[in-house]
Amino acid sequence: MLPTIDEIVSNFELLDEWEERYRYIIELGRLMEPLPQEAYNDLNKVQGCASQVWLQTDLTMSSNDGPVLHLRGDSDAHIVRGLVALLISLYNGKTPAEALSTDALALFKELGLSEHLTPQRSNGVRSMVERIRRDAQAAVAAP
């Protein structure tokens, strides 16, 4: 089970060395809910990532707020898998409208990840965020 985004930010701030932070990101990837085998398909594959990344977005009904996003994901690269986990912690359980107003790139900047990721990984993160936002936008537009 993934920690909340607030717990992740708090834990991240306790780690002084970037090597420790990378290990923590990798550990987050290990805590993710497994992606079912049938979800490894072209529909869920995120384009624009150097590593292979799959994101599955489902809408589930919440008791109060209507539909909320339920995300699962995976990657063939340990650090990228951790970045997927970070995004899932940020967006999971939000309504589509809340997801559209969430600025993941600002969080990555706040955590210092923007400066410590390779340009390829940064592009991959942007591709993942765009994919989540596209899914949220489709949910908002659906009747």
From TrEMBL:
<comment type="similarity">
    <text>Belongs to the SufE family.</text>
</comment>
<dbReference type="Pfam" id="PF02657">
    <property type="entry name" value="SufE"/>
</dbReference>
<dbReference type="InterPro" id="IPR003808">
    <property type="entry name" value="Fe-S_metab-assoc_dom"/>
</dbReference>
<protein>
    <submittedName>
        <fullName>SufE family protein</fullName>
    </submittedName>
</protein>
<feature type="domain" description="Fe-S metabolism associated">
    <location>
        <begin position="10"/>
        <end position="134"/>
    </location>
</feature>
